[in-house]
Amino acid sequence: MNKSTFLAAGVFAALSTPVIASDIVIGVPNWSSVNATAHILEVVIEQNLGLDVELQNATNPIVFEAMDKGSMHVHPEVWMPNQQNLHDTYVKDNKSVVMNQNPVQASQGMCVPTYLAEQYDIKSIDDLSDSEKMKIFDLDGNGKPEVWIGAPGWASTVIEKIRARSYGYDQVFDLTEYEETIAYANLANATKAKEPWIGFCYNPHYIFVTQELTVLEEPAHDPATWTIVQPTDDPDWLEKSQASTAWNGATLHLHYAKTLEEQFPSVAALFAAYQMQPADLSAMGKALAVDGQDPAEFAASWVAANEDTVLNWLSN
Fold this sequence. Notes:
The protein has helices at 3-15, 32-48, 60-69, 84-93, 114-120, 155-167, 180-193, 207-210, 237-240, 260-263, 265-273, 278-289, 295-305, 307-315; strands at residues 24-28, 53-57, 74-80, 97-99, 104-113, 146-150, 174-177, 199-203, 213-215, 226-227, 242-243, 250-257. By secondary structure, the protein is an alpha+beta fold. It has two domains: 3-105 and 250-315, 3-Layer(aba) Sandwich (D-Maltodextrin-Binding Protein, domain 2), CATH 3.40.190.10; 106-243, D-Maltodextrin-Binding Protein, domain 2, CATH 3.40.190. Strand 1, helix 2 and strand 2 (53-57) form a beta-alpha-beta unit. The longest helix has 17 residues, at 32-48. 40% of the residues are buried.
Protein backbone atom coordinates (compact mmCIF):
# COMPACT_ATOMS: atom_id res chain seq x y z
CA MET A 1 0.00 0.00 0.00
CA ASN A 2 1.50 3.36 -1.00
CA LYS A 3 1.23 6.41 1.20
CA SER A 4 -1.69 7.92 -0.70
CA THR A 5 -3.63 4.68 -0.45
CA PHE A 6 -2.84 4.47 3.28
CA LEU A 7 -4.12 7.98 3.91
CA ALA A 8 -7.23 7.38 1.81
CA ALA A 9 -7.91 4.16 3.65
CA GLY A 10 -7.63 6.05 6.93
CA VAL A 11 -10.23 8.50 5.72
CA PHE A 12 -12.60 5.71 4.61
CA ALA A 13 -12.26 3.82 7.88
CA ALA A 14 -12.81 6.90 10.00
CA LEU A 15 -15.82 8.07 7.98
CA SER A 16 -17.54 4.72 8.52
CA THR A 17 -18.26 5.83 12.11
CA PRO A 18 -20.73 8.55 13.12
CA VAL A 19 -19.31 12.07 13.15
CA ILE A 20 -20.39 14.70 15.70
CA ALA A 21 -19.97 18.40 14.92
CA SER A 22 -16.83 19.97 16.43
CA ASP A 23 -15.44 16.73 17.81
CA ILE A 24 -12.06 18.41 18.28
CA VAL A 25 -11.49 22.03 19.31
CA ILE A 26 -8.03 23.48 18.75
CA GLY A 27 -6.93 26.51 20.76
CA VAL A 28 -5.14 29.18 18.74
CA PRO A 29 -3.10 31.85 20.62
CA ASN A 30 -1.99 35.06 18.92
CA TRP A 31 1.15 34.28 16.91
CA SER A 32 1.54 33.19 13.31
CA SER A 33 3.30 29.81 13.58
CA VAL A 34 0.75 28.43 16.04
CA ASN A 35 -2.02 29.62 13.70
CA ALA A 36 -0.41 27.71 10.84
CA THR A 37 0.09 24.59 12.94
CA ALA A 38 -3.51 24.68 14.17
CA HIS A 39 -4.80 24.78 10.60
CA ILE A 40 -2.47 21.94 9.60
CA LEU A 41 -3.76 19.78 12.44
CA GLU A 42 -7.31 20.64 11.41
CA VAL A 43 -6.66 19.42 7.86
CA VAL A 44 -4.90 16.24 9.01
CA ILE A 45 -7.65 15.28 11.46
CA GLU A 46 -10.55 16.05 9.13
CA GLN A 47 -8.99 14.39 6.09
CA ASN A 48 -7.59 11.29 7.80
CA LEU A 49 -9.63 10.68 10.93
CA GLY A 50 -13.02 11.81 9.72
CA LEU A 51 -13.69 14.14 12.64
CA ASP A 52 -15.00 17.67 12.62
CA VAL A 53 -12.54 20.27 13.90
CA GLU A 54 -13.10 23.80 15.17
CA LEU A 55 -10.45 26.46 15.76
CA GLN A 56 -10.91 28.95 18.60
CA ASN A 57 -8.72 31.98 19.27
CA ALA A 58 -7.72 32.19 22.93
CA THR A 59 -4.91 33.14 25.28
CA ASN A 60 -2.62 30.52 26.78
CA PRO A 61 -4.38 30.41 30.19
CA ILE A 62 -7.80 30.08 28.58
CA VAL A 63 -6.65 27.20 26.35
CA PHE A 64 -5.21 25.32 29.32
CA GLU A 65 -8.32 25.86 31.44
CA ALA A 66 -10.50 24.74 28.54
CA MET A 67 -8.41 21.59 28.06
CA ASP A 68 -8.82 20.90 31.75
CA LYS A 69 -12.61 21.19 31.44
CA GLY A 70 -12.83 19.39 28.09
CA SER A 71 -14.13 22.30 26.01
CA MET A 72 -10.84 22.51 24.05
CA HIS A 73 -8.58 19.63 23.19
CA VAL A 74 -5.15 20.88 22.11
CA HIS A 75 -2.67 23.75 22.32
CA PRO A 76 -0.31 23.25 19.35
CA GLU A 77 2.65 25.31 20.56
CA VAL A 78 3.32 25.71 24.28
CA TRP A 79 6.54 27.56 25.03
CA MET A 80 8.48 26.15 27.98
CA PRO A 81 9.57 27.42 30.47
CA ASN A 82 7.38 30.45 29.68
CA GLN A 83 4.20 28.49 30.42
CA GLN A 84 5.71 26.45 33.26
CA ASN A 85 3.06 27.56 35.75
CA LEU A 86 0.23 26.43 33.45
CA HIS A 87 2.06 23.19 32.67
CA ASP A 88 2.58 22.46 36.36
CA THR A 89 -1.06 23.15 37.23
CA TYR A 90 -2.70 21.10 34.50
CA VAL A 91 -0.10 18.46 33.58
CA LYS A 92 1.53 17.75 36.95
CA ASP A 93 -1.17 18.64 39.49
CA ASN A 94 -4.53 18.13 37.77
CA LYS A 95 -3.19 15.49 35.35
CA SER A 96 -5.85 16.62 32.90
CA VAL A 97 -3.42 17.67 30.16
CA VAL A 98 -0.68 15.66 28.45
CA MET A 99 2.56 17.10 27.05
CA ASN A 100 3.87 15.77 23.74
CA GLN A 101 7.42 14.41 24.19
CA ASN A 102 8.83 15.60 20.84
CA PRO A 103 9.99 19.14 21.62
CA VAL A 104 11.04 21.79 19.16
CA GLN A 105 14.25 23.42 20.33
CA ALA A 106 13.92 27.17 20.67
CA SER A 107 15.63 30.28 22.00
CA GLN A 108 14.62 33.78 23.10
CA GLY A 109 16.21 37.03 24.16
CA MET A 110 16.71 40.65 23.15
CA CYS A 111 17.64 41.46 19.55
CA VAL A 112 18.76 44.27 17.30
CA PRO A 113 19.25 44.23 13.54
CA THR A 114 22.82 43.20 12.78
CA TYR A 115 23.59 46.47 10.98
CA LEU A 116 22.88 48.30 14.26
CA ALA A 117 24.93 45.86 16.29
CA GLU A 118 27.89 46.49 14.01
CA GLN A 119 27.48 50.23 13.52
CA TYR A 120 26.88 51.11 17.18
CA ASP A 121 28.69 48.20 18.85
CA ILE A 122 25.56 46.84 20.51
CA LYS A 123 26.43 43.24 21.27
CA SER A 124 25.68 42.66 24.98
CA ILE A 125 22.70 42.99 27.30
CA ASP A 126 24.92 45.32 29.36
CA ASP A 127 24.87 47.80 26.48
CA LEU A 128 21.19 48.44 27.23
CA SER A 129 22.17 50.20 30.46
CA ASP A 130 24.38 52.67 28.55
CA SER A 131 22.05 55.66 28.25
CA GLU A 132 24.33 57.46 25.78
CA LYS A 133 24.55 54.47 23.42
CA MET A 134 20.81 53.81 23.67
CA LYS A 135 19.79 57.35 22.61
CA ILE A 136 19.35 56.08 19.05
CA PHE A 137 16.21 54.22 20.18
CA ASP A 138 14.43 57.41 21.29
CA LEU A 139 12.15 57.30 18.26
CA ASP A 140 9.49 59.73 19.49
CA GLY A 141 11.95 62.33 20.78
CA ASN A 142 10.63 62.34 24.35
CA GLY A 143 14.11 61.93 25.81
CA LYS A 144 13.74 58.23 26.65
CA PRO A 145 14.39 55.32 24.27
CA GLU A 146 11.80 52.60 23.72
CA VAL A 147 12.26 48.83 23.73
CA TRP A 148 9.56 46.32 22.81
CA ILE A 149 9.39 43.59 25.47
CA GLY A 150 6.54 41.54 23.97
CA ALA A 151 2.80 41.37 23.50
CA PRO A 152 0.28 41.88 26.30
CA GLY A 153 -0.69 38.53 27.82
CA TRP A 154 2.50 36.69 26.91
CA ALA A 155 4.23 34.98 29.83
CA SER A 156 7.55 36.06 28.32
CA THR A 157 6.48 39.72 28.52
CA VAL A 158 6.15 39.46 32.29
CA ILE A 159 9.57 37.83 32.50
CA GLU A 160 11.17 40.40 30.19
CA LYS A 161 9.88 43.12 32.53
CA ILE A 162 11.59 41.29 35.39
CA ARG A 163 14.77 40.90 33.34
CA ALA A 164 14.82 44.60 32.48
CA ARG A 165 14.59 45.47 36.17
CA SER A 166 17.22 42.88 37.13
CA TYR A 167 19.69 44.09 34.52
CA GLY A 168 18.84 47.73 35.21
CA TYR A 169 17.83 48.87 31.74
CA ASP A 170 14.29 49.62 32.90
CA GLN A 171 15.87 52.85 34.18
CA VAL A 172 17.02 53.69 30.65
CA PHE A 173 14.10 52.53 28.47
CA ASP A 174 10.37 52.85 28.24
CA LEU A 175 9.29 49.21 28.24
CA THR A 176 6.59 48.97 25.58
CA GLU A 177 4.03 46.21 25.06
CA TYR A 178 1.89 45.77 21.95
CA GLU A 179 0.94 43.08 19.47
CA GLU A 180 3.64 41.08 17.75
CA THR A 181 2.34 41.86 14.25
CA ILE A 182 2.91 45.56 14.86
CA ALA A 183 6.31 45.04 16.49
CA TYR A 184 7.69 42.94 13.66
CA ALA A 185 6.18 45.17 10.98
CA ASN A 186 8.10 47.99 12.67
CA LEU A 187 11.21 45.81 12.55
CA ALA A 188 10.76 45.16 8.83
CA ASN A 189 10.28 48.86 8.12
CA ALA A 190 13.28 49.80 10.25
CA THR A 191 15.47 47.24 8.52
CA LYS A 192 14.44 48.46 5.09
CA ALA A 193 15.32 52.03 6.04
CA LYS A 194 18.38 51.02 8.10
CA GLU A 195 16.87 52.71 11.15
CA PRO A 196 17.00 51.72 14.84
CA TRP A 197 14.89 48.90 16.31
CA ILE A 198 15.29 46.87 19.48
CA GLY A 199 13.09 44.28 21.10
CA PHE A 200 12.25 40.79 22.23
CA CYS A 201 12.73 37.99 19.72
CA TYR A 202 12.32 34.25 19.72
CA ASN A 203 13.36 31.49 17.38
CA PRO A 204 11.92 29.58 15.54
CA HIS A 205 10.27 32.61 14.00
CA TYR A 206 9.97 34.07 10.53
CA ILE A 207 11.95 37.19 11.51
CA PHE A 208 15.09 35.03 11.47
CA VAL A 209 14.23 34.12 7.87
CA THR A 210 13.50 37.65 6.70
CA GLN A 211 16.02 39.67 8.74
CA GLU A 212 19.64 39.55 9.87
CA LEU A 213 19.42 39.84 13.64
CA THR A 214 21.92 39.86 16.49
CA VAL A 215 20.79 38.31 19.76
CA LEU A 216 22.44 40.21 22.59
CA GLU A 217 24.97 38.27 24.63
CA GLU A 218 24.14 37.50 28.25
CA PRO A 219 25.66 35.58 31.16
CA ALA A 220 24.81 31.88 30.92
CA HIS A 221 21.61 30.86 32.64
CA ASP A 222 22.01 30.36 36.37
CA PRO A 223 18.86 29.08 38.12
CA ALA A 224 20.04 30.72 41.35
CA THR A 225 19.55 34.12 39.66
CA TRP A 226 15.97 33.39 38.58
CA THR A 227 13.01 33.88 40.90
CA ILE A 228 9.77 34.46 39.02
CA VAL A 229 6.67 35.56 40.92
CA GLN A 230 3.51 35.87 38.83
CA PRO A 231 1.44 39.09 38.91
CA THR A 232 -1.62 36.97 39.69
CA ASP A 233 0.08 35.55 42.79
CA ASP A 234 1.42 38.66 44.51
CA PRO A 235 0.83 42.41 44.00
CA ASP A 236 4.54 42.94 44.73
CA TRP A 237 5.56 40.36 42.12
CA LEU A 238 8.04 42.62 40.33
CA GLU A 239 9.94 43.60 43.47
CA LYS A 240 10.08 39.98 44.62
CA SER A 241 11.30 38.61 41.27
CA GLN A 242 14.68 38.48 39.60
CA ALA A 243 16.12 37.13 36.35
CA SER A 244 19.63 38.44 35.82
CA THR A 245 21.04 35.77 33.49
CA ALA A 246 19.96 34.39 30.12
CA TRP A 247 16.85 32.34 29.52
CA ASN A 248 17.41 28.63 30.12
CA GLY A 249 16.88 27.83 26.47
CA ALA A 250 13.34 26.98 25.46
CA THR A 251 11.32 24.16 23.98
CA LEU A 252 7.96 24.07 22.24
CA HIS A 253 5.56 21.24 23.02
CA LEU A 254 2.09 20.41 21.80
CA HIS A 255 -0.21 19.83 24.82
CA TYR A 256 -3.53 17.99 24.60
CA ALA A 257 -6.47 17.06 26.83
CA LYS A 258 -6.04 13.67 28.48
CA THR A 259 -9.73 12.90 27.90
CA LEU A 260 -8.86 12.36 24.23
CA GLU A 261 -7.14 9.08 25.15
CA GLU A 262 -10.58 7.59 25.79
CA GLN A 263 -12.85 9.76 23.65
CA PHE A 264 -10.75 9.84 20.47
CA PRO A 265 -7.67 7.62 20.92
CA SER A 266 -6.62 8.05 17.29
CA VAL A 267 -6.40 11.82 17.83
CA ALA A 268 -4.49 11.37 21.10
CA ALA A 269 -2.05 9.09 19.26
CA LEU A 270 -1.63 11.68 16.51
CA PHE A 271 -0.91 14.41 19.07
CA ALA A 272 1.54 12.17 20.92
CA ALA A 273 3.42 11.42 17.68
CA TYR A 274 3.32 14.97 16.32
CA GLN A 275 6.73 16.47 15.57
CA MET A 276 7.83 19.61 13.75
CA GLN A 277 11.20 21.04 12.78
CA PRO A 278 12.22 24.59 13.84
CA ALA A 279 12.86 25.67 10.24
CA ASP A 280 9.37 24.53 9.26
CA LEU A 281 7.78 26.65 11.99
CA SER A 282 9.77 29.71 10.89
CA ALA A 283 8.72 29.16 7.27
CA MET A 284 5.09 28.75 8.32
CA GLY A 285 5.13 32.01 10.24
CA LYS A 286 6.61 33.81 7.24
CA ALA A 287 3.99 32.35 4.90
CA LEU A 288 1.15 33.73 7.01
CA ALA A 289 2.56 36.92 8.52
CA VAL A 290 4.80 38.18 5.71
CA ASP A 291 3.53 36.59 2.51
CA GLY A 292 -0.10 36.98 3.55
CA GLN A 293 -1.18 33.46 2.68
CA ASP A 294 -4.61 32.34 3.85
CA PRO A 295 -4.07 29.93 6.80
CA ALA A 296 -6.53 27.31 5.54
CA GLU A 297 -5.14 27.34 2.01
CA PHE A 298 -1.58 27.22 3.32
CA ALA A 299 -2.40 24.27 5.58
CA ALA A 300 -4.00 22.28 2.75
CA SER A 301 -0.96 22.85 0.54
CA TRP A 302 1.46 22.01 3.34
CA VAL A 303 -0.27 18.72 4.16
CA ALA A 304 -0.29 17.71 0.49
CA ALA A 305 3.41 18.54 0.15
CA ASN A 306 4.47 16.81 3.40
CA GLU A 307 2.79 13.43 3.10
CA ASP A 308 5.70 11.55 4.70
CA THR A 309 5.57 13.74 7.81
CA VAL A 310 1.80 13.37 8.12
CA LEU A 311 2.04 9.62 7.62
CA ASN A 312 4.54 9.40 10.49
CA TRP A 313 2.13 11.25 12.77
CA LEU A 314 -0.69 8.90 11.84
CA SER A 315 1.16 5.59 11.87
CA ASN A 316 3.00 5.81 15.22
